[in-house]
Amino acid sequence: MRRFIVRLLINALALWLTVLILSPHVAVTSWEPGTQPADLLTYLIVALVFGIVNGIVGNLVRIIAFPLYVITLGLLSLVVNALLLILVAWLTGLLGFGLSIEDFWWGVLGAILLGVFSWIIGIILRPLMGRPRETR
Predict the structure, then answer these.
(1) How far apart are CA 27 and CA 86, in angstroms?
(2) Is the peptide bond before 127 cis (omega within 30 degrees of 0)?
(3) How high is the pLDDT of residue 129?
(4) Single pTM value for the model
(5) Ranges of the chain whose pLDDT falls below 70
(6) pLDDT for 46-71, tens place per residue?
């Protein structure tokens, strides 16, 4: 349970940094703009939806498209991650708040930044997740 909560916080923080850099092309709209608790909860909800979509749809697509990943030397992952981010924007948009992305290429850039930020924050917070650092 602790790993799930830490992972959720990592994704929410990475999403916040991504939106901060790519604003206004990638944005998160709160259901109650201007209030910090609502903004924080919106980022957590979007991070949760992203985690669910990435865990279910993303893994399914990665398994099915594995030969294409090999042929494109992994570059297909940029397109898949961007499409997953756009799917999250669409799903949260149905709720009337959440993530919005201007177009596909901003989705690609947003997916790259989100992945890099999640990776860096994950390395920093690895001790909280209960995994020791690897030493060589």
Answers:
(1) 12
(2) no
(3) 67
(4) 0.85
(5) 129-136
(6) 999 999 999 999 999 999 999 999 99
Residues 29 and 129: beta-carbon distance below 8 Å: no
Would you give the distance in Å from CA 68 to the centre of its chain? 23
The CA-atom distances, in angstroms, between 26 and each of 42, 70, 87, 119, 122 are: 15, 30, 13, 20, 22
Instruction: Convert 21-52 to b/e letters by CB count within 10 Å (16 or more is b).
Output: ebeebbebebeeeeeeeebebbbebbbbbbbe
Q: Taking each helix axis as running N to C, give the angle between helix 104-124 and helix 2-22, from 0 to 180 degrees, rounded to the nearest 10.
A: 130
Phi (first) and psi of residue 25, to 5 degrees: -75, -30
Q: What is the pLDDT of residue 136?
A: 66
Please report where in the chains the tokens 């909280």 appear, as a residue: 128
